[in-house]
Each structure stands twice: as structure tokens, then as C-alpha cells.
Amino acid sequence: xxxxxxxxxxFALRETRLAKQSMDPEKLKSFSxxxxxxxxxxxxxxxxxxxxxxxxxxxxxxxxxLTEWLKQTDQQNFGSCHQPADYIHRLSAxxxxxxxxxxxxxxxxxxxxxxxANADLI
Length: 122
Hints:
Layout: H1 4-22, H2 25-42, H3 44-54, H4 57-73, H5 75-78, H6 84-93, H7 96-118
Helix pairs in contact: 1-7, 2-3, 2-4, 2-7, 3-4, 3-6, 4-7
């Protein structure tokens, strides 16, 4: 049986490799480095809403990676989300405990994404 950390790492590696093929790896590298602190400073919901508003490649990629992971790991809360706005609505309706769990899961995943974005793994 694999640990959650192993599953997170595998997912982050696969998604980061795909992202590096579809966009400038240097932009992904610099943006992913600051993403966890952005969440901690501004909040999870506010950060992903900001990413959606900016609509740059690096924002879209990290939003996609995070939301796909949350959809896989938290079917109860995110399983029915299909559009970007669905995730924002779901986060805004969550109890604080669930919101913080989702935020912590996002931060854990982003640490892997950040590491893989900095590695030469294509």
C-alpha cells in the first residue's frame, strides 16, 4: 500500500511534466515557487480566484493541477465540480474544517509541484 505522500508525488510529477511540455518551464518554475506563500498570505479561495482572474498559462496550469488533485482525493466535496467556478462555489460553502483540510492538501501538493518544476525531469 502506498502512502498519501507517494500518491501526491506521483500525481505532481506526472502533471508537472505535462505542464512543462505545454508552457515555458521557467514561468512554471518561478510561479510554483511562490504559490504556497500566496495561499498562506491570501487564503486558498482568494488565491485560486485570483489565478482564474489573471488567466495566464502558469495560473491555469496550477489551477488545473490543484483542482484535479482535489477532485480525485476529495470526491465528497469536489467530485461534482466541472467548471472553475464550481470549485470557488464549493470552497465558499465549506465548513472551516473542510476548507482548511483542502487548503493543507493543496499546500502539500504544491510543495511537490514546486520541487518537480525546479528539477530537470522532462
